[in-house]
Amino acid sequence: MREERGPWYLFTGLVLGLAAGLVYAWLISPVRYVDTAPASLRADFKDQYRALIAAAYLASGDVERAKARLSLLKDDDVAQQLAIQAQLAQAAGAPESEIRGLTELAARLNPSLSLPPTATLPTDTPTVAGTATMTPTPVVVMTLTLTPATTPETAATNAGPRPTVTPLPTLTPSSTPGAPFVLQDQALICDPKPVQPLLQVEAFDAAGQPVAGVEVIVSWSTGEDHFFTGLKPEVSPGYADFSMTPGVSYTLRLADGGEAVPDLAPAECEAPDGSRYWGSWKLVFIQP
Questions:
Q1: What does the buried/exposed string (b/e) look like for 236-268 if buried means 16 or more CB atoms within 10 Å of the residue's CB?
Q2: What is the rounded CA–CA span in Å between residue 240 and residue 260?
Q3: Model pLDDT, residue 108
Q4: Which own/partner pairs from 264-267 qualify as long-range (CB within 8 Å, at least 24 positions apart)?
Q5: What pLDDT score does 246 carry?
Q6: Which residues, at least 6 apart from 252, have a Cβ–Cβ distance to it below 8 Å?
Q7: Which domains are present in the chain?
Q8: What does the buried/exposed string (b/e) look like for 162-179 if buried means 16 or more CB atoms within 10 Å of the residue's CB?
Q9: How many CA atoms lie within 13 A of 188 on its CB side?
Q10: Spatial distance between the Cα atoms of 185 and 206, rounded to a whole number of angstroms
Q11: Following DSSP, what letter does each residue of 208-233 receive, concatenated?
Q12: Residue 158: helix, strand or coil by DSSP?
């Protein structure tokens, strides 16, 4: 008698073969990518790639090498992508050095974010108030002449003229660019467009040019936050803002020193139709 088998044994073999193939392809001999183009990386790996390039630029200042490396990612707008990543990194609480590197590189690549030669971005280390300038002076060479020791009178007669000793050079202090910013203007802005009241900050150098990458520190009774100018280039390279909460008083200062501005709280403004809304504070800082 002939035994008839159903199609189940074929299905079972297919499942076992598929499972064996997956185990071999994923565990035993997985695919290894070698010399993969940076443009084909995942979005998070591209972010890491940009952060490393920005860190290298921050250390070396070689903008041409940074451009060449960033071109491998084939971004449509490299500077804008760096600015967006800096905003996301700031929101995620990334290290300040990473945010600073992304901001400075974006400002260097985008003409609207470029810094004037006289402006220097604040650093995490204190700056020296003055540099010493040494004026070169002639070197004095003293030659000793040995004479026979005869009598005191002879020794006094043969002695040559005494060498003249030149005073040591004098240290002359000179000014260092990048002086701390000072508050130039503070005004209440009554504009109903922002949904929340804002602390608006603008930073300018001594020549009146906006400065990107300036760290701003705002604190209140229960916390503190840090943000940087230049992350909204569509407004101004030297612009930054912070959302306030009605009923909370804030103190604002710049990280490189200078005067703190206290008692910044949302104030009520009145619209032409009689309705009321919260106004924003605008603070303008300038390098003397």
A1: bbbbbbbebeeeeebebbbbbeeeebeebbbee
A2: 17
A3: 87
A4: 264/199, 266/197, 267/188
A5: 93
A6: 199, 201, 216, 217, 218, 260, 261, 264, 283
A7: 38-113 (no CATH), 182-286 (2.60.40.10)
A8: eeeeeeeeeeeeeeeebb
A9: 12
A10: 15
A11: S-B-S--EEEEEETTEEEEEETTS-T
A12: helix
> Which amino acid is residue 182, in one-letter code?
V
Cα–Cα dist 280/22, whole Å: 60
Tokens of 207: 């020549």
In the block, tokens 């790996």 appear at 45
Confidence of residue 129 (pLDDT cuts 50, 70, 90): very low
> Is the CA virtual torsion 81, 87, 89, 92 positive or negative?
negative
What is the value of pTM for the model shown?
0.47
**Of 237, 205, 283, 211, nearest in space to 83 by CA:** 237
CA angle centred on 84, ends 79 and 89, rounded to 5°: 120
Distance CA(212)–CA(234), nearest Å, equals 13
Angle ∠(228,234,236) on CA atoms, nearest 5: 55
Find the farthest-apart pair of alpha carbons in the chain and give their distance in angstroms, rounded.
149
Give the burial class of 75: count Cβ atoms within 10 A of its Cβ; 0-12 exposed, 13-18 middle, 19 or more buried.
Answer: middle
pLDDT 10s digits, 138-190: 444 444 444 444 444 443 344 445 545 444 444 333 333 456 899 999 999 99
Q: Tokens at residue 43, please?
A: 């979005």
